[in-house]
Design goal:
G3P_acylTferase_PlsY
């Protein structure tokens, strides 16, 4: 497989990740820019709070699908480990979308899609951590930060190889960076708690 094909599939994965699902849903449903409402994020949590649970779930499914597609693109090329690079490219696209002038979401739902396609130890660990932290605190942001941070450790303890550990570190670092405003609000006691009602 040529280097050009590898570069092209990584670029395509970035573009897939860049599709701003929540932004497009909000534009279509209410004609609004979701970045000007609620937390200002384009992700599923803010869509849920702004437009309601149904559209929030639609945003979650769409963003998760981007991660799945990116991994499948990487595997289709047949280069070992390429699915980790295409997965990382999708996360980068979601976080810094070319369609939104390199603004974007916080990568959690797209990370879910990527992890669904990788060895299950990280997904199982991150999901358990996310559910536990959300149940205890009702802070989606805190649950997401801690869950993302558990991914590299889960891969390391699961013995799946150094490439997966490096990918997990990338995922965790980007997730924490994208949640820096949430971290500031958490420290100040100003972060909003999640409710299953709009």
């Amino acid at each position: 497989m040529s280097a050009l094909a590898v570069i092209l599939v990584i670029g395509l994965s970035y573009l897939v990740g860049s599709v701003p699902t929540g932004y497009l849903i909000a534009r279509h449903v209410k004609g609004i820019d979701i970045r000007g409402h609620g937390s200002g994020n384009i992700g599923a949590t803010n869509v849920w709070r702004t437009l309601g649970p149904g559209w929030g779930l639609a945003s979650l499914v769409g963003d998760t699908a981007k991660g799945i597609v990116a991994v499948l693109l990487g595997r289709a090329v047949g280069v070992p480990g390429l699915e980790l690079l295409t997965g990382a490219a999708a996360l980068t696209g979601h976080g810094w979308s070319v369609f939104l002038r390199f603004q974007g979401g916080k990568i959690i739902a797209t990370s879910l899609g990527v992890l669904i396609m990788l060895p299950p130890v990280a997904l199982a660990t991150a999901a358990a951590v996310w559910i536990a932290v959300l149940a205890l605190t009702r802070y989606v942001s805190l649950a997401s930060i801690i869950a993302a941070s558990s991914v590299p450790l889960a891969f390391a303890l699961g013995g799946v190889g150094w490439r997966h550990v490096l990918f997990g570190l990338f995922l965790a670092l980007v997730a924490v960076y994208k949640h820096r405003a949430n971290i500031d609000r958490l420290l100040k006691g100003k972060e909003s708690r999640f409710s299953f009602r709009k």
